[in-house]
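This section describes the prediction task in plain terms. A model, or a person checking by hand, is given the sequence of a single protein chain and must write out its three-dimensional structure as a string of tokens. No templates, partner chains or ligands are provided. The sample shown here is typical of the held-out split.
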Amino acid sequence: NHDSTYRHRDQKMEHGIFPDRFGKFSPSFYSQAQRRREQPQHQSTGASGHPDDSTDRTTAKFFQHTSAPRISSDAVIAASLKRQYPSLQLTTVPVDNVDILAYASSVPDDVASFHQVEPESSVFPADLKWNYYLPPARRLDGSKGGIATDLHFGKFLYRYKGAEFIVYLAECRDGSSSYPPIVNYYILSSPPEVHLVESLLMTAGHSAFELKDEIWVFDGGRWQKSRELFDSVQKSSWDNVILDEDMKKALIDDHTSFFASRGQYERLKVPWKRGLIYWGPPGNGKTISIKAMMKTLSEREEKVPSLYVRNFVSYGGPEYAISMIFAKARQYAPCYLIFEDLDSLVTDGVRSYFLNEIDGLKSNDGIFIVGSTNHLERLDPGLSKRPSRFDRKYFFPDPNLEQRVAYCKFWQGKLKSNKDLEFPDSLCKAIAEITDGFSFAYIQEAFVAALLVIARDSETLDFGSALEVGSEDDWVSVDVPDSNGGGDDTDLEKLILWVEIKKQIEILRQGMGEERQRRVRFQ
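The expected answer:
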């Protein structure tokens, strides 16, 4: 059997199919390749069967090539462009690196512009694109969605600084399941204008690198710029966050002093990096404090970009995601890197890799890391107890009596316009006194549940926007309103809100007791 196998291999080597044991092909292989090169290239034909000279050759080549097995689409397109435009210089650019069409769409036409080149023949279409329905982001807004386009191939005339370039866009996916697909721009320019192509790439690349009222968000294995998160952050303010004043001041100073102290770190010969952990029961201000700090840092004279991490999911696994996250942070340093629910992100499988990225051989100068968790006990001691990784921990406790009174006054202000619902100052203190041990989130739930019951049982009461709690942070980001003028001698037992909210608080306390019992059994 071995002899027959080697005889079969030797026969193939004689025809130049396999290389010999030194990795060289037989001379017959090269002669066959030479004959193949000398064969005439396939040309598209018109209705008469003759070559159609009016057809764009590269367009024809793209469609011919993509309807057959492929080896390297990029090589085929580059070679075809060289034959079609022998006097022009070819520059190839990946779209995900520099998107020149997106850049032209974001600047005035006198800076950069483009238009699609229509085909000179009906043999091939001008482009290859998919149109698909894009559902509305929020059905509540009443939007019907829209139509989006995914371009796979197209030819454009591009203008930049008085020069004109021919630009092809082509998806160079090789194989039926290749991921991620390679999409390139092929820019053709005259040799004297090559420096303008390089200028375009530098300008468009830098424009894409900069954040314009956006925040970088890592989700599903890739970084995306989020205007929605930026807008949400701009609504946050330290003035409206209910926290202990000393703790609030310490939080702000910890961040602002770090970004202003690079020179001091260098003089002391210590790495310019810092890490904090926010921990405590859910619903007590960790998220809104992070958002308020993001806004504060974005308003500095030297703005500090924020990078927000939602998960470690990626097609390359969580280790690859962690690598991408810290690579982006080092690129944008000085920056603010945020990991919410740190205990859920850093599992046993990735803990070692995560620790190495935080405190390994690579420099993290200028990176301020903040991680939040509801369960500090679930964090590995290598994260929670080693200063070189997370230097300090801030505890966010349940609100005290004064803070609970302030939050009740917030609800008093929301309901001020409803004249049929009595909400005197004395009710604020009474509710605060019976919600000891409640987080802001639990107090909010008590108000919402009570008001819903009252509205359901009443034919006249309508609380309208008062029940629109909006974001998850409304329970800590509050403006404490002035009193509504209600006296303190009101008999509380006659107030429908007091009667109903007591019931809801009791229901919530029962749930809290069951949760504590489950936690004790788990521990």
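For orientation: The chain has 18 helices and 13 strands.
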